[in-house]
Design brief:
The chain is mainly alpha-helical. Helix content is 68%, strand content 0%. The longest helix is centred in the last third of the chain and has 22 residues, at 86-107.
Length: 139
């Protein structure tokens, strides 16, 4: 029989493994995707979180439309996904590449911590601000 202290130590070691965090993110993403696949965010009456920025300001944030975009992608509606959020759609391959790289390193027992320098951070924030202004002023 396994005593509680030994089991606790094994669980603690497993949670510290480099693959634990990316696997948890993958599992949460898969669970969310299953729910989203059968829940049309274009229709009212579902349990999906509202954007807090839009709730407070009435304006679209840079990520608004992302849930609808993912739903549309999962259902093969690429044109509608483009209309939901162009910038997120263009950025999604990069986000997927980061997740795959993180998962690959974790499964090989290595930690991976991507770094974004000040120039990269400035570019990302600049794009987010520009996209927010464009979609609220022009759209």
């Amino acid at each position: 029989m396994v005593d509680a202290e030994h089991l606790s130590a094994r669980c603690s070691a497993a949670l510290r493994h480099p693959a634990a965090a990316p696997l948890a993110v993958l599992a949460a993403g898969a669970a969310g995707s299953v729910y989203l696949y059968v829940t049309d965010p274009h229709q009212p009456g579902h349990w999906l979180p509202r954007c807090p920025f839009r709730f407070v300001t009435g304006l679209l944030c840079p990520a608004c439309g992302g849930t609808r975009m993912v739903y549309d992608l999962m259902h093969g509606q690429f044109g509608q996904a483009w209309l939901d959020n162009r910038v997120l759609l263009l950025a999604s391959p990069y986000a997927l590449a980061v997740l795959v790289r993180w998962m690959w390193a974790g499964l090989h027992g290595r930690s991976w911590h991507p770094r974004l320098g000040s120039r990269g951070l400035t570019v990302v924030l600049g794009i987010a601000v520009a996209w927010t202004v464009i979609r609220n002023v022009v759209g």
